[in-house]
Amino acid sequence: MSLGSKIRALRRERGWTSEYLAEISGCTQSTISEIENNKRSPQYDTLEKIAKALNVALVDILPLEAHIGTAEFTKEEQKLLEMFHKMKPEQRKSLLSFMQSMVEKKN
Prior knowledge:
It is built from seven helices and no strands. The protein has 107 residues and is mostly helical. 15% of the residues are buried.
């Protein structure tokens, strides 16, 4: 999922228009539209504003490829990362809590 698609998906999950996201982020509507349509690569400060407006960590709007970078992961690890990246923040918290309890029980 591209950066623009991720931002659009997060915006739509909230039922917001691009105009509303522009208003609360301090960006212009044309900037939001161009980013969502992958016609513009946003500056870091613009990404920060959008993430803050969406109330998510900056890392949550970056595409999976940005997280993986040049690190080498097994196919299983890549699949886990892909699935984790698709989850909503509250789903991630639940999963992490579950995994933590599994690790603690093992030890």
